[in-house]
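call fold(seq) -> tokens
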Amino acid sequence: MRLDHGAIFDQPDLVEAGDQPEVVAVTYVATATRTGKRWTAVARDLPGGRTVQAEGASWGEVRRNVADLVFEAHNADAGIGALQLVPADPEAAAAVVDVIAARSARILAEQAERDAVRHAVRLLIGEGWSPRDIGSALLLSHQRISQLAPGATT
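ret:
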């Protein structure tokens, strides 16, 4: 199997936290339970102490239905609301949370790789390396190196 190391640059960079204005967001957690072939989701502690309950034939449907109710209850409240739907079963919830954590770690690792490659390209260009030699050392095409360091013709 051959990896395309340059494909990581097809993904957008993460925005640094300090680059954007501070946004206050509230995350509501809803738990979902399956009974037979139906899902029921409950979100508690909404504005005004409200609790909402929604049903659906699938995980996606119950997520949409409870989200609609949560955001309807949140609409009059200032700020931005988010919803996290988790299984009510603790073992299933832990498995879902583990996947989310692994994906978050991958996103951060990909950004770290992009940053490291850009730093290496700048350093090696500054030392007089050619784009072909840099690409060979970093397992990237010379075209990708030229994209990362426009105007580098050493």
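The mean pLDDT is 90.
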